[in-house]
Amino acid sequence: xxxxxFLILPxxxxxxxxxxxxxSPDASQLIGVWKVDLRPTPESDAYxxxxxxxxxxxxxxxxxxxxTPVTQARINTDWFQVRIAFVTKDGSGAYHHSAVLSGxxxxxxxxxxxxxxxxxxxxxxxxxxx
Length: 130
Description:
Layout lengths: L1 H20 L10 E6 L10 E10 L2 E6 L2 E2 L1 E6 L6 E8 L2 E10 L2 E8 L4 E9 L5
Antiparallel strand pairs: 1-2, 1-9, 2-3, 3-4, 5-6, 6-7, 7-8, 8-9
C-alpha cells in the first residue's frame, strides 16, 4: 500500500502543479468599448449594442451596457479566466448579466427578470472606439 502511494504521488502532483504556477489574468484588458452581438438566435440578423467598461478596480468595474449604467459589477479571476457579472435596469426591471473572457471574445448571458427570458450574447472589443 505504501509503495502504491509513492507511485501515485508524482502523478497527482503533476496534475496540480500547472495551476500552482499560473497567475490570475489581468482584468484591465476589459477596459474599452465592446461590440455586443445580441441576436436572439444564430439564424437572426445581427443586432449590435455596446458594452463600455471605463474602469476596473480589483474585483469590480464601471461602465454602461445598452446605454444603461452598470451596477453591482463584479470580477472573478480566481479560475484563471476573467469572469464578470453585473446588473442593468430598464422600464421592465432588472437584467442580470454574466460573461467570461475567452481569448478576445466575451461570451455572456443576460437574464431578464421582468421580461422572463435568458439570452446568449458575444462581444468583441471595438478597437476603433477606444
